[in-house]
Amino acid sequence: MPRALILGNGVGMPLDRRSRSSSALYAGAGAIAAALALAVAPRATGTTAVLGVSASVAANCTISASALSFGSYEALSANANVALNAAGTVRIACTKGSAPRITMDQGQNANAGKRYMTLVGAGSAGIASALYYEIYQPPDPTPGTGCSFPGSTLWGSSAAQTFVPSAPTGRAARSYSVCGTIPPGQFTVLGTYADTVVATVNF
């Protein structure tokens, strides 16, 4: 195979065309590999963490009431022998899963465990002209149950007189009847009588 001489510095060297082609090939392949290495992004690494998530729902209730208004008590006629009855309402809305209990205090003019309305504007002497009344629970704990007179279970603050409504089934407020009775035959001074009773829902 013919060989050529490379002249340089007075020294003759043989030129091998195959060696030159191989070197160029290897150099080109190396350049391509380097370019590919630069084009491929480095593989990412990472670590993980666990994020706890929690919340709580506390027992809660709201309560409101409408007035228990008896109207006119006719001591000498209609109510001489027949009680005067009236109904109010108490409304509660409670958290699902709560166990509400509703109590009523004895009012502002209680005497010997009984509730009394006193003559409006009579001051401290009002108790001398008082109108005895009582509040009873509805006959059934189902919301919306009407009163049944005469009432059978007093509504008060003791354990025996605490009203236990049915369990809440939704967020909407539920109404319960407040059953009031003024016994007949009370001979009192004419005028307007009033009292204030506090209803409490425990949960």
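The above is record 1. Record 2 follows with the same two-line structure.
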Amino acid sequence: MSVSIHPLYEGTFSVGTDKIFHPIAKTDRPHRGALKVSIHPFLIKSEDRNILFDAGIGDLFGGETSIQTMYKNLEKQNLSNLDITDIFVSHLHFDHFAGVANRDNGFWELTFPNATLRVSEGDWKELTENASELDEDRQEFLFFLEARADIEFLEEDTYTIPGVRSITVGGHSKYHQIHFFEQGEHKYLMAGDIIEGRSSINQNYAAKYDFDPPATKEIRDKLQKTAFEEGYTILAYHETQHPVFRLSDYDEKSGYKIQNIDLQE
């Protein structure tokens, strides 16, 4: 069975209180008072499907981000945006799913018009019910998706297509989901912002920016154990240098040992 995984690197950014994503080099420090964030949607190519786990940043975050980055990444894999069949979103924070629509031609269009967009029903309901609190661009984005996108709501623990399992865990956001891909020897786990990078592994504190910090830590601990014991490769959306890695060993004092997997981006 032919399966391959490809991180689609969309850039590294300095993100301050203005929430604008300012591009920086991978080796740069973020601007003063800002966070350093990298963006990696993941493409899984199987025999009959081209699947995205999270959909990228799109162009909602200021003039320095562009949907053209996604198009160029897909070209490197001999694909176009028309070839994407399925999109699974971990949670509805815009840096994880704003890429599903764009205004590259001056008006809203679906970036992946042949894909089914799969999201948590609770997440979608909460976001759309509170749309009035968003800025005008984000409101237009959501209204466009409601009208035009092929949206399928994911249940709390479900298989929707062969090989993909989704579970709702909460933690980082109220309805945060984990997506698993399982076909033969290929086993991948994408945990959105619960395991956002290598620094999440062996993390012993609860982050204040999570919806439920103690729950997030507990979920992360369980996922690390699952990944190690069951042999899942972790896909880390915000990791800068090595977004694909395994947990190769465990020590009670030092925790899990990380084995980087370098793949073509």
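The CA atoms of residues 251 and 257 lie 8 Å apart.
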